[in-house]
Amino acid sequence: MYQPLGVPVAGGNALVEGWIPPQFDKGYQYILLSAGASGYHGNRIINESVTGSWPNITATGTINVPGSPFHGKTVRLINNERRFLRPGTLPGEMQQYQNEWHQHGGQTNEAGWHSHELPATLWSNDAGGNRVPGNQDGYYNQNISGRWTSPNGNHVHTFTTAGSGGDEARPRNIGVSYYMRVL
């Protein structure tokens, strides 16, 4: 139950029901890495600062535990920042969110010799000499449905797919609260 000093530990009810580090044990003191959590850790974090807006939040505080090797040190309140902890060669190095570059597009199969039906209102004004082959000039909102383009040879059509998704990229996850032993 007691963790090494300075190691973020996932706790709360999300993983193991009811496991929360001890609050009032003077020999082992933990902080909840959240701004506004004075109900858990009293004044063990002071000078809290939360800036920015989601998803670019920065939250810090100063550890206030006399006798702790972290007393007076600034700590990142990662529960507010909602960052994933990842192994890395440079501890403390931060990476912003990003999607891997990719592109969507496509092409239909060749459709052989074919034509296309014209929309019902191809022209929005007097078309003058422009006309559907074999028909009179098209005038404002003249209904020309049922008319077709001249057939064309084997060809393909390009298209772009519709976008989907939310406002961030993320793996499946479950929320946990991180604590850290400071004494």
User: Which regions contain 5 or more consecutive residues with pLDDT less than 50?
Assistant: 122-127
Tell me the strand percentage band. 15-25%
Number of strands: 8
The overall pLDDT average reads: 77
Order of helices and strands: EEHEEEHEEE
Based on CA inertia axes, which overall geometry fits? rod-shaped
- The level of helicity is under 10%
Query: What is the total number of structural domains?
Result: 2
Number of helices: 2
Radius of gyration: 32 Å
Helix/strand/pairing category: mainly beta
Write a structural description.
The protein is mainly β and 183 residues long. The protein folds into two domains: 8-85 and 174-181, no CATH class; 112-155, no CATH class. It is built from two helices and eight strands. The chain has helices at residues 38-41, 78-81, and strands spanning 8-11, 30-32, 45-53, 56-63, 74-76, 106-107, 158-159, 177-181. The strands form three sheets. Strands 1-8-2 form a three-stranded antiparallel β-sheet, with no helix packed on it. It has a three-stranded antiparallel β-sheet with strand order 3-4-5. Strands 6-7 form a two-stranded antiparallel ribbon. The longest helix is centred in the N-terminal third of the chain and has 4 residues, at 38-41. It comes from Agrobacterium tumefaciens. This is Tail fiber protein.
